[in-house]
Fold each of these.
Amino acid sequence: MAPGTDFILGALAAEGLDHLFMVPGGLVDPFMPALGRQTQLTPIVAAHEGGAAYMADGYARACGRFGAVLGIGGPGLANMTTAIAAAKTDCSPVLVLSGEIPVAMEGLGAFQDASQFTLDDTALMRPVTRLSLTAASAGNLGHALRHALAEALSQPRGPVHLSLAHDVLTGDCDAAHSPVSPFFTAAPLDTAAAERAMPLLAGAPRLAILAGAGVEEGAAPEALKAFAERFSIPVATTLRAKGVFPEDHALSLGVFGYAGTRHATAALLSDGIDVLLVLGSGLNERDTMHWTLRERSKAMFVHVNTSLAELSAVGEADHVVAGHARAFLDRLSRLGDLEAAAFAKGKSAREDWIAGIKAGPRLYDTENCHRPGKPIHPASAIVALRDAFPRDGIVLVDSGAHRAFAGHYWTAYVPRSYVSATNLGPMGWAIPAAVGVQCARPDRRVAVITGDGCMQMHGMEVQTAARYKLPVIYLVLNNGALGNVWLRAHQYGALPSELTSVVDHDWAGFGRSLGAHGITVTDPAGLPKAMAEAVSAGTTVVIDVKADKDCPTPVYDFAAGAHAWSYHE
């Protein structure tokens, strides 16, 4: 028998977690001594509950397991809502634990009562989670936690919430936790549909692959690379999956869709393409270039995804395979002799096709990558960081114009090295999420590309990174504006321009005040030195780059698709 708090912490450790992200408060007070009674979990105290939830999200994305966040119910849980919604839209598994008042006091006017008698925390979280439950007794805590973890780790994965009454935290729990995670190592696949896909793919001389975030899991990236190399098959990725295939590889087309490359656009919208294999990706607006892929592509679509909702949501594919990208790639690694011969037959045609596409330029506006003069072009700062950063370093990219510049000009070489909340896209997400990523991957360097608008929202979490001595680099593209919004709004006159402008704060000084090292760069000639200093500092660093706001983002293909496309069922 042990208190519910000890049972929960022991269960998280048994599942392989080594960090718990939290903000203390009265409703979770019993966790404080419980954390002192164990040694496997390191508690990380965030500045804000939303930041703690973003940290748990970043941790989950970096480690491939799940992240856990703890806070009080009511105001604490409400502060987490946007962060958990972002995790849900990106299928990131996060366990949210919130404290609640004793059951006997519910509805009696107790301070911060957010039980079903008042706010009903579980109802608040239900739309943004896969499951939201109340555990009211230590007697049902064991199976409530197992049920929540099973929902979080089932495909497609996502966040779950447990509201924990005080009775649960202090009551004796006699359950023995058996890890849930091992049940989800298998990769499901509709084998009959997969078999029917084989001749469709093997008979396509001009076959290309669009790899989504589903390819990040397990050994799928290695299997994708081996299959592509064996038969000279070009690979594009979604922005969310950037890095799942090395972008300096001869068969890499780069990103297709928002901030994508010219190579990916040319290949996937080519009149000559025969079949497009969509692996582990939905077909949302940004990943299909405002649905242009759906409307203009001449290719037959073979679509592999764990989510039946994704498979059916935006039009019928020519052939659908319900299942995990890793399992489908495993099948492609076990081709029979006749199947392999059929794939090999189209190899030379694919090589000629891709050579023609890659003979043209890959990126737009490459002169901006080393543009002289002030203020600094965002592309110049991003390229300078990439030049100084380790090949396997992990970069997190926030929401704003900098997302487009980073997506286009940053080169990602390894899976899970380019991390971004690409679907809901909350501003400031990357600042705290980087803390979770660094905790999950202490062996890797971590950097954030963010903006001054994002810093205004969650910049205080820089102090969390500094307090725990995490060597995260925060590159702030400080352009005195809400970048993407200003680019649209300033065309409409002086007031819209003013409303979308931001005060030029000293973000390096702000970083120093929070315990970080601060660097200010006003001249592009100083970028290489600043980036080298940040990488070698071994501590939290804030680089305040005085950037140009009047820079069109390199989303020309996406913008053209949006302009040309009209909605119809």
Amino acid sequence: MKSKRYFNTTGFCMPERHYMIDPLRNQKIIFDLIEKTQYFTIHAPRQTGKTTLLHELAHRLNKEGNYISVVFSVESAGYRSITEEIANKKIINSLYSSSGQYLNKKNCPIPPEKYTKDLTLENYLIDWAISQTKPIVLLLDEIDSLYDDVLVSVLRQLRNGFQIRPKRFPSTVALVGLRDVREYKTKVRPSEVSLGSGSPFNIKAESILLGTFTKEEITELYSQHTKDTGQIFLKEVVDRIYELTGGQPWLVNAIAREIVVKILNEDFTKKITLDHVESAKENIIQRRDTHLDSLIDKLKEERVKNIVSAIINGDGVLFDNYDDSLLYCRDLGIISETKPIRIANEIYREIIPRVLNRNLQDSIEEEGETKWYIKSNGKLDMDKLLKAFQEFYSENSEVWLERFDYKEAGPHLLLMAFLQRVINGGGRINREMAVGTGRTDLLIEFNGDKFVLELKLKRMPSARQKGLDQISRYLDTLGMTKGYLILFEIKPSSIIPWETRVKWEEVSYQNKNITIVEM
């Protein structure tokens, strides 16, 4: 029997249509702030459930009957050339049109066209609050779509009204967007930055960052599908999906939808396997859905570039200088809050290098029909593959590194592009990249075999020794005894010519067999 509900990947979730878990489950803080008539911000990356939470919150508050609450978006005023006067009208129109979705007519504000006073958001909210017997909880979505004077004007009007709440202004206002309010001051013109405080919304009591799903919450979400259809997501499947997604809500839903709808064609009698999970991951990456495209778009920004380059290289140098960049990347959902700092989840770790070296991947052509790096028994010849890369790197790297937007991470990205053929041939690459480690670790799985590669830039003479120590420890954690240490020389070939920098050496180190590949 076809399920009435499904895994949602577009728009906000509705319990009667979609599998979802209560977005307010861990948000006692929000109800406490509302009770104390506080103003606050909610921020989270795109497609993590902000709008779902807002709708659920407004409906719940209205149903309980102690408040009247409306969610509305200010995005219609979110372009640079707009005047404050027109922006006010657009924002007020959005508020009025949205109020009808949440409130009966007597609780709605007056239609803007019938408003006789100077039509500013502040005046409009004052008169609405005075006309009501219950306190108003106002939830402004997409607040960070506003620019310059308009953004400052809106925040100032809300700050002015804060003093006369709850009888003559909304009791609680929540500003909702991708970024915390601390970031808003960077979006106004320099002449407008000084507002007598660190932020034009310095009245906020809390800044709430929405988290990702836990493994238990993913299990709860998927169990709703099982209850409706009988189709089970086994524990090993949930565990792997959690590894891939890091609990990012859109990815959690997208993987499940890809398996259930696209791969298994809604045949609920079929068992969901780990192979289905890997196929779903690859399909989503290859298709580059809107969610992934919005992530990719952010990679062009300078402060994102600083962080992502540092993570790919394992650099820790001057990283404290990028604190704002760090918070920005965290708020966008690109990095995790773990220490050391990593790309947020395995799917992002997979797609980011692919996007950054896409042009190179397209230019690397297979030589003939036979896959020359595959042995006659179907196994991967890693030595042959890496020796071919040494040759490719010595012939092409200087041209390609100049073309890379991410020049600092160029050597690592070149090798990952070269190894992409392994994935295309049915293998898998697990990338371990983290700030301050001084390296990137790749675990390649192909036809039952595993290969460990450690990538390291030769910034210091000690790089080789440190690399041997690091790969030895890494092999210990994996219970393996063979690995490859890839050392990239960062000095130009005019100083150290290729004939002396390209080396291949096999050594025994701490009971491990290490192949040192230098270039």
Amino acid sequence: MFAWWGRAVVRFRWLVLAAAAALVLVGAAWGTGVFGALTGGGFDDPKSESTQFRDRTIAELGNQDVDVLVLYSDATAAVDDPGFRDPVTATLAKVRALPEVASVTSFYDTQSPALVSGDRHATYAMVQLKAIDPDGKTSAYETIEPALTAPGITTRTGGTIPFLHEANKQTSEDLARAEMFSLPVLLVLLVLIFGGLAAAATPLMIGGIAILGSLVVVRLINMVTDVSVFAVNIITLIGLGMAVDYALFIVSRFREELAAGHEPPAAIGRTMATAGRTVLVSGLTIALALASLLIFPQSFLRSMGFGGLAAVLVAMLAALTALPALLAVLGHRVNALRIPLPWRRGPEHTGGDGAWARIARSVMRRPIVYAAGVVVVLAVLASPVLRISFGGFDERVLPPGSEPRVVSDAISADFAGGTVGPIEVLVSGGGQAEAQRLASTVTGLPDVTGVQVTASEGASSLLTVTYHGESTGDAAQGVVRAIRDLPAPDGVDILVGGRTAADIDLIDSLVAHLPWMALIMALATLILLFLAFGSIVLPIKAVLMNLVSIGASFGVVVWVFQDGHFADFLGFTPTGFIEPSNPILMLAVLFGLATDYEVFLLSRVREEWDRTGDNTASVASGLQHTGRIITAAALLLTVVVAGFASGGIAFIKLIGVGMIVAIIVDATLVRLLLVPATMRLLGRWNWWAPGPFGAVYRRFGIRELDPHPDAAAKEDALTASGRAG
């Protein structure tokens, strides 16, 4: 099937390239419009108590969200001085009159001491917007932001909407910077890997198709359901990374077939039958791993799944269509524009006596020693996972100088009982008397610094609860859980919301869905690898290998980002916990990437096993043929990820560092040492498939049927006249 596909692409190469060019044009002209259509937020579980709190509060009391906090300060004047008071009150009067603003609450209206700093040189106003949905609020904030500045007074904005706005803005800037950094470095490295400009340009071309094509797919999905802006990050990361991996693998195999004496059409057929098959298995496996994100109720995780699925599948299809079509046009000219590199022996040097094969034989002579040593190293790297602690993200994920973070820090430090994320309690039923009774009870709970009834309508009231510490801290979480544990009188509903409650609900929801995600990834990998290799042992071993490399990555992430090691060097503020959606996203992406390298290696090992029936020789030859490619792919993907790790958002940095560690560990300790050692220990059991399983593989396996011994020669003769040229 795969060789036939290669011949079909050669025959219709110009049509395929025209279709790819059309996709690029549509992506550039229409697909990029998705940036203005994507939504923000999406961190809530629709069934959680905090979401029910928000919906019922709006229904019973109207919109009560405090969307923007405006901090006014002056180093010399106090809040009561006319030079401070007059410009601030005049500014707030104009803000109240804006059509986007529902209300403004300030010290000058309420005389509340909670709105004045301890030294009385700062005060903050609370602005409520008329919009209800996050996108509407963000748009309204962008409109009113210039009007918030009081002349002559230092003005900074913070709170929920400025925080989300700044996070999205910083993420977009990080994305652009990552692309500017990674693309030139990728080109240089590809030139060094291939030794020529023509071959080096092909992976970047496939990367461009993957990214623009994915934007088209995501915009189509966005026409059916909401997609978060975070989908764009994973499109660039996965789309570019996988496109480079797949193109590297296919172009390397094509050049190898050319070096073996095959004409370009035949070389493409043989490449599709081997490397093309591998790319298909890898792409489907990674896509299914990322599809596991779709089971989560939070739209931002589902959006990551949509973006990842689009990126992988478009990269895979581009590598199986546009790339062989381009290679058919280039033919032997794929080696054009060579750059003399004295250390290279050429892409065709893939014999069985190279350095990679010698490493494999060394490992297989002492498999127990190597396996035990690698396991010990990986266990040490993974050990910090045992003390992982989860918590929600707050303004500390932003760079220290960003305005929302400055406002959050100032209110927490300088205002008595101040917090940018108060706990809110809806008391539905019982009237104001029940609300006052509950307020008195909540006031006596540990770590509570104040309780106020901030809204009432009919039988419903809203309480605002302040507390010690950060909204993500143990004290705040303890207050939320304590309020939720309070018994509600008959006929009264008590719902707890706010930022801390939403964080707790998010963690609980993610933990509840995590086992199903793991089950989907494991089953998908086991089934696809069985169909690819005809063994029930290798898929199980692959899943275990993935887990040990991912475990090592998670351990390093905990040691760095939770414990705070290298915080100054990497430029982030440690919080003492990990936001739980980050490791979940890492798990989906890294599980797929680890399987990608496993498929690259085992595909060639299986090819050699079918040819020789010698397990040890097959492993050595397979590693010799793929070791350089896997290492190069890992290096290139590390460059792509490094651009994200250098950004200003802490959780993007965390994912980047975690991926870099996993890629390095997987491409060195696992694929280079642990896999050969375990395959030597298992011997012929590597390829074991009991009778029924063997029958299933023969019937449904993803494999190329063995050709007649003279098929290759006949194919060369038949297609010589059709050489691309």
